[in-house]
Amino acid sequence: MNKTKLQELSKLLDATVVAKVLTGAEWQKEGGEKHPEAGDAIQTDSGCLMIARVNGSELHCVEISTVLTPLEKRLLSWAIRQGNMRPVSAASDLERQARRFGEWVQQSVAAGEWRAEVPERMELRNRLFDGMVPFLLSCEQVEDKEPSYSELEKTIRTYIPEDTLLIPLREHEWLVLTSDSVLSEADADGDEEIGHEETKELLASLAQGLHELITTEWGGECHIAVGEPIVPSENVVRIVATLRETTFLGRKFHVGMQIHLPWLVHLERLLSGIPETVRSRFVEEMMGRPDLFTDSETVATLDAFFSMDCNVSETAKKLFIHRNTLLYRLDKIKNEAGLDVRSFNDAVLVRILLLLYKVTKRK
Known about the structure:
InterPro entries: CdaR-like_regulators, Homeodomain-like_sf, PucR_C-HTH_dom, PucR_C-HTH_sf. Pfam families: HTH_30. This is Carbohydrate diacid regulator. It is a single chain. Helices cover 50% and strands 15% of the residues. It is of the alpha+beta class. It folds into three domains: 82 residues, no CATH class; 173 residues, Alpha-Beta Plaits; 87 residues, Arc Repressor Mutant, subunit A, CATH 1.10.10. The strands form two sheets. The protein has a five-stranded mixed β-sheet, with helices on both faces. The two termini are 41 Å apart.
């Protein structure tokens, strides 16, 4: 609420009115309920506190230094809610529901309520069903301008049109929920039953296609994390937190990667929790040659080798080099670092060292 409106409201109520920003926890401490909405009010020792706008985890309130009558409170609450509503149409009504739902998800994630179920009061709950694929889309540095809700939804529906929901979360961040039928449609083999590993491959392929669509249409830097099918009414808060963490870990440990998969960052999640001083000391103590990972060819070889599950023949194919050339490079690493990546224990150590080196030496 801007300064002019605050002054008008102050004159109307003949009381001091000031703007105030609270977190959900502070609102509850004042006596408010969980998952507040615009227009909600609580009585305080000095008067009345009413929410003017909800912006993610922030509650923009007005503090009124007088006790309002029940009628005044209802009228002011009604006016605030009307001001927060958009013109009603089929499209804008869905956007309003999606934004309201996204605000609830934001508040739940911020409060650490990962197991929270979607409340009945959420209108969008009726459009959630078992077996929806979640994508978390984060876009930055768009070349022209950020797309509107309707523009982005229309673009996404050209790729995954059936039962797709676009839910705004934070600035430049959206959750996309779509039917798991996209998996069978993307399965080129047309198998009646898709295995677990094949499901992961299809999800990665869908995320890659969505990324190409968004960057082609809007430009800029875009990151997409995707999870396995969920029951959104029960797991939407948890999956948003998980996909955010996945994107964070991917960007931290694998610079240049735009597609982030939760099942590929288990080790990164563990290493991220280690204090930076411990990480740096471990790298220094274990490295036979401190400059080993500064060689781009060595890093590319190791990245390919680990991505191919330490398979020499497949790694050589991926790098477009002869098998003997790859063996020469691996022997060189063994001689210089004292670690043989063809040995399981040494491979684990080198994998950890490479990940830690990327984040400790990048600073």
